[in-house]
């Protein structure tokens, strides 16, 4: 199952809930304000790297660009909307708002 | 009212995910015409509102960040940004599109207490 | 005292409009003057007369109109309203659409300005 | 594949409607069938033709209408719409107002069902 | 469609502060008529949606919690609640207005993976 | 200054921000979903008690009743909307959403 997360991890616990309930090994796609969690050199980087041990983390390119997040944590995969559609082709989705 | 009011606009939300910071900014531009004592403060995810390098064209959303740059023309010069909020998000003053003064939490607390009105966006 | 209020969320989805209404009502009952209620962001959706809630639910728009009938200035931000499909054709009684200058004036004229929002 | 989509937030205030639109557009470009887009909660506000955004901003309602013109079923939840002042009089082209049964049918008929919301 | 779909409704939001759980519930009541395999799960603040003792009269809001009690009449019997979410909020099964099965995180993960559709509210 | 907080402390960091920036000794009024933070016997009780060392914490009675929160942490003051108005009479407010 693909897990969509869209709230900023600095103000919302949605990503924590996602990680708690998602099956290990599942893909997590960060969209909208959640892409701030993909930025390198932040207080959340260690937490994200810990999450990446159990999950494959993606971040939506269009939302990264909109926010000027260019320095993405190594290992987080950038996908555009076409890649988003491809992830949905492969996995049934749910959303953590 | 003969006195000048001290009004603080507190930007706490990230841009694009929600509209609060953009519409909050729209209100500031109008306030500039009223010759009040306006302070803008960026805390929490609000600091992202003035981050450099935004390009919303692929997301199909209006980029409103350039508007922050015109604040000076509106005689709104009291711009502050919370140091801790910036540091937690890996940002420094060089990452900002406006010349906001980087201040510590205590300074923000003090500034808030001096206001007549604090409007959160 | 003179109170000003801002409502940042629409009706029903968030409790903000309910809270603002209850607060304004209690303030008026205590004899305070409400210099105005400014509806901003999705708050503008509180002003449409097309709202038609279930019979056993409160009618949030009607409640605000009643506050307006008591002489309270209910100002709907025009910039926010245009983005969300609110105009004079659908405006409920007691509301008026105006600019952000009204927010500034309420903030200046009120002794206390209270914001009700969410995120 | 057959995709179904739910939009839980109104236009402009949250990015959810933008994200859903971009997703639907990309899915259609890849040849997928969209069995429907269900507008629920504040999502119903995406369907009002009274929306009049700034000239230099995207017109979210119009974009959805264009998707509707391509044959995609844009369903606005009637229960949610009534609470928020959306009815047939203000409905933009391409949308239709219907019941929650449509959400169920989309969920049943779609191979993938994607929700775009906030909180 | 001859097959029966497995549809999960995931309630994650507290009542009254936002409407998601109430309108989510409205959708479940309609779904009951479609003879699908419906599962409702309460996690995070969603567990508050089925807390006993709500009285919304003073707040002037419609109390929708009694509606959860009619789910059984709609042949929707697969109700689960996350143990950790309940415990963190100081709630036990006795505090709930419906007979939801208290399950651990692993069970919820497994249930989610079995679904054709998961709808979050 | 009176600080209004309205989001559930289980899903939002608003209360944390409030506590970070509010002047020590200020009143904090929990309304809407924030009143869940006033409930005794929860994982957040210790955190609330720690906040109460620095601030006077109030919770809105109407919102407590709506949510069936009857076991309020000792020391948190319950106020109804009239009490809310009285707090505003005494203090200029701001809101943490």
Total separate domains of chain B: 1
Task: Find the CATH topology of chain B.
Answer: Hypothetical Protein Ychn, Chain: A
Question: What is the radius of gyration of chain B computed over CA atoms, rounded to a whole number of angstroms?
Answer: 14 Å
- Spatially, the strands of the biggest sheet of chain B line up as 4-3-2-1-5
CATH superfamily of chain B: DsrEFH-like
Largest interface: C-D, 26 and 26 residues
What share of the residues of chain B lie within helices? 25-40%
> What would CATH call the architecture of chain B?
3-Layer(aba) Sandwich
Number of strands of chain A: 5
Q: Which stretches of chain A are poorly predicted, pLDDT < 50 over at least 5 residues? A: none
What best-fitting shape of chain A do the alpha-carbon axes yield? globular
Taking pLDDT < 50 over at least 5 consecutive residues as the criterion, the unreliable ranges of chain B are: none
Order of helices and strands of chain A: EHEHEHEHE
% residues in beta strands of chain B? 15-25%
Number of domains of chain A: 1
The total of beta strands of chain B comes to 5
Largest sheet data of chain A: 5 strands, parallel
Shape call of chain B: globular
Please outline the major beta sheet of chain B: 5 strands, parallel
Assign the CATH superfamily of chain A.
DsrEFH-like
CATH class of chain B: Alpha Beta
If you had to describe this structure to a student in words, what would you say it looks like?
The complex is a heterohexamer, with 2 copies of chain A (97 residues), 2 copies of chain B (121 residues) and 2 copies of chain C (119 residues). Chain A is of the alpha/beta class and 97 residues long. Chain A has a single domain, classed as Hypothetical Protein Ychn, Chain: A, CATH 3.40.1260.10. Helices cover 35% and strands 21% of the residues of chain A. Chain A has 4 helices and 5 strands. A 5-stranded parallel beta sheet of chain A has the order 4-3-2-1-5. Chain A is globular. The model of chain A has no long low-confidence stretch (mean pLDDT 98). Chain B is an alpha/beta fold and 121 residues long. Chain B has one domain (6-120): 3-Layer(aba) Sandwich (Hypothetical Protein Ychn, Chain: A). Chain B has helices spanning 20-31, 65-69, 83-88, 105-114; strands at 6-11, 37-42, 78-82, 101-103, 117-120. Chain B has a 5-stranded parallel beta sheet. The two termini of chain B are 26 Å apart. Chain C is an alpha/beta fold and 119 residues long. Chain C has one domain: Hypothetical Protein Ychn, Chain: A, CATH 3.40.1260. Chain C has helices at residues 16-29, 60-69, 78-83, 101-109, and strands spanning 2-7, 33-39, 74-77, 95-98, 112-116. In chain C, helix 3 links the parallel strand 3 (74-77) and strand 4 (95-98). In chain C, helix 1 (16-29) runs parallel beside helix 2. Chain C is globular. The model of chain C has no long low-confidence stretch (mean pLDDT 98). Classes of the chains: A alpha/beta (97), B alpha/beta (121), C alpha/beta (119). Chains in contact: A-B, A-D, A-E, A-F, B-C, B-D, B-F, C-D, C-E, C-F, D-E, E-F. The C-D interface holds C 10-13, 41-42, 45, 48-54, 57, 61, 79, 82-87, 89-90, 119 and D 10-13, 41-42, 45, 48-54, 57, 61, 79, 82-87, 89-90, 119.
């Amino acid at each position: 199952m693909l897990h969509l997360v869209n709230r900023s991890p600095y103000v919302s616990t949605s990503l924590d809930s996602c990680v708690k309930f998602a099956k290990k090994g599942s893909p997590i796609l960060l969209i909208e304000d959640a892409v701030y969690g993909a930025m390198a050199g932040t207080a959340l980087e260690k937490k994200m790297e810990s999450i990446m041990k159990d999950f494959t983390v993606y971040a939506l390119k269009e939302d990264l660009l909109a926010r000027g997040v260019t320095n993405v944590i190594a290992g987080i995969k950038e996908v555009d909307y076409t890649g988003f559609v491809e992830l949905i082709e492969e996995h049934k989705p749910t959303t953590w708002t | 009212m003969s006195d000048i009011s001290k009004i603080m606009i507190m930007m706490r939300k990230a841009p694009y995910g929600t509209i609060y910071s953009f519409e909050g900014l729209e209100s500031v531009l109008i306030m500039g015409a009223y010759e009040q004592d306006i302070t803008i403060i960026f805390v929490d995810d609000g600091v992202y509102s003035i981050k450099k390098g935004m390009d919303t064209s692929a997301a199909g959303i209006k980029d409103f960040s350039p508007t922050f740059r015109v604040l000076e023309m509106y005689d709104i010069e009291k711009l502050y940004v919370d140091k801790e909020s910036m540091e937690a998000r890996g940002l420094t003053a060089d990452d900002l599109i406006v010349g906001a003064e980087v201040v510590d939490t205590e300074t923000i607390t003090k500034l808030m207490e001096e206001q007549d009105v604090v409007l959160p966006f | 005292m003179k109170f000003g209020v801002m409502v940042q969320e629409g009706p029903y989805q968030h409790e903000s409009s309910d809270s603002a209404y209850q607060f304004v009502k209690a303030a008026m009952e205590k004899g305070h003057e409400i210099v105005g209620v400014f509806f901003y962001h999705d708050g503008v959706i509180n002003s449409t007369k097309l709202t038609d809630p279930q019979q056993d639910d409160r009618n949030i728009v009607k409640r605000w109109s009643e506050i307006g009938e008591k002489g309270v200035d209910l100002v709907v931000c025009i910039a926010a309203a245009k983005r969300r499909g609110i105009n004079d054709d659908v405006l409920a009684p007691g509301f008026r659409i105006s600019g952000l200058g009204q927010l500034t004036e309420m903030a200046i004229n009120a002794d206390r300005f209270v914001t009700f929002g969410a995120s």
